[in-house]
Amino acid sequence: MILAGGRGERFWPLSQPSFPKQFLAIFDNKPLLIQTLQRIEGNFKKNERLLIIPKELKALTKKYVGRENIAVEPVRRNTAPAICLAGMILRKKFDSGVMHVMPADHLIRPRKAFIGALMYGQRLAEDGYLVTYGIRPERPETGYGYVKLGRRMGTQGGNKSYAGAGFTEKPNLTRARQYVRSRRYLWNSGIFSFSIDTILGEIKGYVPDVYRGVEKFVAHRKVRHFERVPDISIDYGVMEKSRRLCVVEGNFGWDDVGSWMALERYFKKDDKRNVLVGDARGVQIEDSIMFSRDMPLRAYDVKGLIVIVSQHGVLVCKKERAQDLKKLFK
Asked: Alpha helices of the chain — where are they, by DSSP H?
């Protein structure tokens, strides 16, 4: 199940509400959504793949993915209702089985290691666990959520599993540094595995209003039923409360490329620590990110800035504020 309803606000102006991050081809010259589908293509048949998208992205998504199976949310209601909707659709289609849930806009490599982690997670999910995939932090990241590790449970193919001991939302820098030093916290990748019956049972138990509202929508196809569903994430609604939480420490590279700062991890820097993409250059620029594909971008005497030029607008901000760009759209 691929969650493909993101807004991608931190990649403005290249991303727009009508053209969010999963359609951008900044990395590897392929849209992130296409990379996600290709990553699982050899292991999951077309009838086993399901994209969950908001109504307003239906036409655009179909243009990119063709005949992939798509389920449409009539209104945006966060990840708990989306996963509940997918679970009910899949239960009707397959009766039972394990759902692997992943966002459409992450970078993951190598593919083989990722699939290996999913197969381990599938085994744990078949035993009744709600599996979340954690990534060993490479840096004190304030833009990611974290999951705390409990007791060690087992290993398979280089992947370790632990009992989950709780989630933490995006921390401040001091706390993020503490998490990295402790080695008891992993980045929460937002990727999950659970059996259809288990997750629907947990949603029904912990967020019954979500379960009832989605159930009515599936039965009657009336938008008003989905409009009444609470806007709540699966992390907050279920995973933080469930006693079935299990963490698989993935041995694959993962990046949710959550802001323009991600370009520093994927594009070569010059001798002044600048990342210059497209028709972008300047004089006396240092430790900056500059991106333009639509028109010439020139800068003079600039340090520590992100400057993005596109046909939809121009962005200028300090690098340390890249995670706060959502504030521009409130």
From this structure: 32-40, 58-65, 79-94, 111-126, 173-182, 196-206, 208-220, 223-227, 234, 263-266
